[in-house]
Q: What sequence folds into this?
């Protein structure tokens, strides 16, 4: 398991065949100062476009996935007043009905917790290097998130990007860092 | 053209444009998901000349693994665990990841 705890963020990429323990993450984000905990769980469903799905199989570029999720948490904190964030994603096979990704956020007020939770799952789908293969009765196919395809052109320019400032003068460098 | 004659021609070209003799660097390339299916490997070491861009690395990889052409237009690159523009110059011991369309969550 790759785990990252920074401030009050818990990020875990779980090894194959390790199920998500939702109560663990709910306990992590819970605090007497908070009036709200919001959660999202992504689960494997049994059909896709008429085909019967047997399971989804996940793999990840783990160190980069953890970095990207950290960046997403930082971004969420800059938009909403949050207490804690927990993000967990499974690797390996996730059968129908089981949870592959789980997000929990806590905040004083529910608006912040709920909005941040939605933001985080949307960003995970757009930018975190994790892949799933859909295993059906008649074959297997790597899935592609539409959120990524829409965002693709920007990814090299996002805050997650390699800082390509060699050769830029100081003024351009400052402008790039402020973006 | 055989690999040996290609490399000696490439060295002559480097000399002709004032490039450094024998200035080669090694980049670790990672292949994920569909990219791994297409190349048959999870990672490899790529030797390129000093000043090579990620774009050039990608072209070299596609010439080694023509199947990668399938994802050429929908993939992105990451350098040392961060998304990168293809114009970025790679350095010795950099880690270049071939990232097909993602599908986490």
A:
């Amino acid at each position: 398991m790759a785990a990252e705890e920074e401030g009050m963020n818990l990020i875990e990429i779980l090894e194959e065949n390790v199920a998500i323990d939702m109560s663990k993450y709910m306990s992590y984000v819970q605090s007497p100062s908070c009036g709200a905990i919001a959660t999202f769980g992504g689960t494997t469903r049994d059909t896709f476009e008429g085909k019967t799905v047997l399971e989804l199989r996940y793999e990840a570029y783990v160190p980069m996935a953890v970095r990207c999720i950290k960046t997403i948490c930082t971004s969420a904190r800059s938009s909403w007043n949050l207490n804690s964030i927990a993000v967990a994603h499974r690797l390996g096979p996730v059968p129908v009905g089981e949870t592959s990704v789980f997000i929990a956020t806590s905040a004083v007020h529910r608006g912040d917790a709920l909005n941040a939770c939605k933001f985080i799952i949307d960003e995970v789908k757009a930018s975190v290097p994790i892949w799933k293969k859909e295993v059906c009765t008649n074959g297997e196919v790597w899935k592609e998130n539409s959120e990524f395809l829409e965002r693709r052109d920007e990814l090299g320019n996002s805050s997650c990007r390699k800082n390509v400032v060699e050769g830029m003068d100081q003024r351009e460098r400052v402008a790039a860092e402020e973006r | 053209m055989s690999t040996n004659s290609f490399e000696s021609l490439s060295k002559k070209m480097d000399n002709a444009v004032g490039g450094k003799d024998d200035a080669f660097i090694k980049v670790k390339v990672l292949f994920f998901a569909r990219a791994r299916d297409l190349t048959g490997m999870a990672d490899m070491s790529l030797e390129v000349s000093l000043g090579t861009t990620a774009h050039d690395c990608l072209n070299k990889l596609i010439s080694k693994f023509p199947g990668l052409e399938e994802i050429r237009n929908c993939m992105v690159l990451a350098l040392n665990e961060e998304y990168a523009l293809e114009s970025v110059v790679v350095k010795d011991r950099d880690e270049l990841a071939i990232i097909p369309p993602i599908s986490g969550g």
Q: What stands out?
A: Chain A touches chain B at residues 42, 58-61, 63-65, 67, 89, 100-101, 121, 124-125, 127-133, 142-145, 148-149, 152, 155-158, 160-164, 166 (CB under 8 Å). The CA atoms of residues 9 and 74 of chain A lie 9 Å apart. Confidence is low (pLDDT under 50) at residues 158-176 of chain A. Helices of chain A lie at 22-29, 62-79, 110-127, 146-155, 170-178.
